């Protein structure tokens, strides 16, 4: 699919245009300069032609923002991998020094560049756009990203500039793995290590990642989408509007994923916020893999890993059947095992068990260990089947479903897990009137 990159200095409206082109609020938009940091991908369609759109952080020089250097790298990477570049400027401020720097960069890149003057909200402001001819990038396209005026003509020009031999294709229905956890546990570092590229910005500052970044992974016989998310902090510690939206994006990433890779910091162990995130995963019936990162910082003996895993499972109970992988991202220690484990959990999550096998295995166990009688009434389970649901759900048909206690529900769940591999997958068990 052809790629269109949106570049420019901070706060000219790049993310607003990106959201308009992809038809949804995928990128966070705020008046604060420097809101967008990583490259952000989406798909747009105009007159039957599909193409990918990249939103980039604002290109800046000489500021105090610790992310500036990393954002510049991301912008250069976006320009390098794109077929067409949309260079955005703002009519009210005119040509700035940064605009001149970016224009010079684009002239030397030999890419097809469309100069877009944003925030042209009325006809009088069109006259102000004429000074941008001085950038030497051809005729400017006057648009207003807030109202959408002028974007039709811009999209016509974008489609005309796309390479002719590029064939549009939609996103495939592939598994989605979300990397989640508290801030600064190494989520973006893991994503970069797996992709073997500087896809996401990594700094020691907690909260570097703001948007949820989706990337396709296709190596070693595995094909899926990888989602890097913003760190999830306690609600009381979320003070900025930007961070609120980042947390919202992370929660939505969990909701739209198939398997969540929950990262912990080995030096801090499993904390209450990790438990809150885990419960969010379980409530949404998603597969889960626990990754204990920064394992190289821990003093170890022969039983350290086993004891650490047991302590985590104790905290996770009653749902403790979760795979745990110990990694060190800078050393690339066991990072491929994370993906292999996530794939196993994904296949377990979509596993369908024939009804005959379920009844053949479970009914003798139920007959041998029936539910305890309540008020002199005997509870009889006659039949069990797996429901046609996206996640593993089982229905037990019983004469008195209202009398079955939670303990017996867990007993049946454990028996199912003993026979079939549902490691890392929450199971739902329903008791229905036969």
UniProtKB/TrEMBL annotation:
<comment type="similarity">
    <text>Belongs to the TRAFAC class TrmE-Era-EngA-EngB-Septin-like GTPase superfamily. EngA (Der) GTPase family.</text>
</comment>
<feature type="domain" description="EngA-type G">
    <location>
        <begin position="175"/>
        <end position="350"/>
    </location>
</feature>
<feature type="binding site">
    <location>
        <begin position="8"/>
        <end position="15"/>
    </location>
    <ligand>
        <name>GTP 1</name>
    </ligand>
</feature>
<dbReference type="InterPro" id="IPR005225">
    <property type="entry name" value="Small_GTP-bd"/>
</dbReference>
<feature type="binding site">
    <location>
        <begin position="55"/>
        <end position="59"/>
    </location>
    <ligand>
        <name>GTP 1</name>
    </ligand>
</feature>
<dbReference type="GO" id="GO:0043022">
    <property type="term" value="F:ribosome binding"/>
</dbReference>
<feature type="domain" description="EngA-type G">
    <location>
        <begin position="2"/>
        <end position="166"/>
    </location>
</feature>
<protein>
    <recommendedName>
        <fullName>GTPase Der</fullName>
    </recommendedName>
</protein>
<feature type="binding site">
    <location>
        <begin position="181"/>
        <end position="188"/>
    </location>
    <ligand>
        <name>GTP 2</name>
    </ligand>
</feature>
<comment type="subunit">
    <text>Associates with the 50S ribosomal subunit.</text>
</comment>
<dbReference type="InterPro" id="IPR016484">
    <property type="entry name" value="GTPase_Der"/>
</dbReference>
<dbReference type="InterPro" id="IPR032859">
    <property type="entry name" value="KH_dom-like"/>
</dbReference>
<keyword id="KW-0547">Nucleotide-binding</keyword>
<dbReference type="Pfam" id="PF01926">
    <property type="entry name" value="MMR_HSR1"/>
</dbReference>
<dbReference type="InterPro" id="IPR006073">
    <property type="entry name" value="GTP-bd"/>
</dbReference>
<dbReference type="GO" id="GO:0042254">
    <property type="term" value="P:ribosome biogenesis"/>
</dbReference>
<feature type="binding site">
    <location>
        <begin position="118"/>
        <end position="121"/>
    </location>
    <ligand>
        <name>GTP 1</name>
    </ligand>
</feature>
<keyword id="KW-0342">GTP-binding</keyword>
<dbReference type="InterPro" id="IPR015946">
    <property type="entry name" value="KH_dom-like_a/b"/>
</dbReference>
<feature type="binding site">
    <location>
        <begin position="228"/>
        <end position="232"/>
    </location>
    <ligand>
        <name>GTP 2</name>
    </ligand>
</feature>
<dbReference type="InterPro" id="IPR027417">
    <property type="entry name" value="P-loop_NTPase"/>
</dbReference>
<comment type="function">
    <text>GTPase that plays an essential role in the late steps of ribosome biogenesis.</text>
</comment>
<keyword id="KW-0677">Repeat</keyword>
<feature type="binding site">
    <location>
        <begin position="293"/>
        <end position="296"/>
    </location>
    <ligand>
        <name>GTP 2</name>
    </ligand>
</feature>
<keyword id="KW-0690">Ribosome biogenesis</keyword>
<dbReference type="InterPro" id="IPR031166">
    <property type="entry name" value="G_ENGA"/>
</dbReference>
<dbReference type="Pfam" id="PF14714">
    <property type="entry name" value="KH_dom-like"/>
</dbReference>
<dbReference type="GO" id="GO:0005525">
    <property type="term" value="F:GTP binding"/>
</dbReference>
């Amino acid at each position: 699919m052809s790629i269109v990159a949106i570049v420019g200095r901070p706060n000219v409206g790049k993310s607003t245009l990106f959201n308009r082109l992809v038809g949804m609020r995928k990128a966070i938009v705020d008046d604060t300069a420097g809101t967008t940091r990583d490259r952000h991908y989406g798909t747009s369609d105009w007159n039957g032609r599909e193409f990918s759109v990249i939103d980039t952080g604002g290109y800046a020089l000489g500021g105090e923002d610790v992310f500036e250097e990393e954002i510049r790298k991301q912008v250069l990477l976006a320009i390098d991998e794109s077929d067409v570049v949309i260079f955005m400027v703002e009519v009210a401020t005119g040509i700035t020094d940064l605009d001149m720097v970016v224009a010079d960069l684009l002239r030397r890149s030999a890419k097809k560049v469309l100069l877009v003057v944003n925030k042209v909200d009325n006809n009088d402001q069109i006259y102000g756009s004429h000074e941008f001819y001085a950038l030497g990038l051809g005729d400017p396209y006057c648009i207003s990203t807030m109202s959408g005026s002028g974007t039709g003509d811009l999209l016509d020009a974008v489609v005309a500039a796309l390479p002719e031999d590029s064939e549009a294709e939609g996103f495939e229905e592939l598994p989605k793995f979300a990397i989640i956890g508290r801030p600064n546990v190494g989520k973006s570092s893991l994503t970069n290590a797996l992709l073997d590229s500087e896809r996401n910005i990594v700094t020691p500052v907690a909260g570097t990642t703001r948007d949820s970044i989706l990337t396709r992974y296709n190596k070693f016989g595995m094909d899926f989408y990888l989602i890097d998310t913003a760190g999830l902090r306690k609600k009381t510690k979320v003070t900025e509007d930007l961070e609120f939206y980042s947390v919202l994006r992370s929660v939505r990433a969990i909701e739209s994923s198939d398997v969540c890779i929950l990262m912990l910091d080995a030096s801090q162990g499993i904390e209450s916020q990790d438990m809150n995130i885990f419960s969010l995963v379980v409530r949404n019936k998603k597969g889960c893999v626990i990754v204990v990162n920064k394992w190289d910082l821990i003093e170890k003996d022969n039983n350290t890993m086993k004891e650490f895993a047991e302590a985590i499972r104790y905290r996770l109970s009653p749902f403790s059947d979760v795979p745990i992988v110990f990694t060190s991202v800078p050393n690339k220690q066991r990072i491929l095992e994370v993906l292999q484990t996530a794939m196993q959990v994904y296949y377990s999550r979509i596993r369908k068990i024939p009804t005959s096998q379920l009844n053949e295995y479970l009914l003798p166990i139920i007959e041998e260990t029936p539910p305890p009688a309540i008020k002199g009434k005997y509870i009889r389970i006659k039949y069990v089947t797996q429901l046609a649901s996206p996640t593993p759900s089982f229905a037990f048909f019983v004469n008195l479903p209202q009398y079955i206690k939670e303990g017996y529900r867990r007993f049946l769940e454990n028996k199912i897990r003993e026979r079939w591999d549902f490691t890392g997958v929450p199971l739902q068990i329903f008791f229905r009137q036969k």
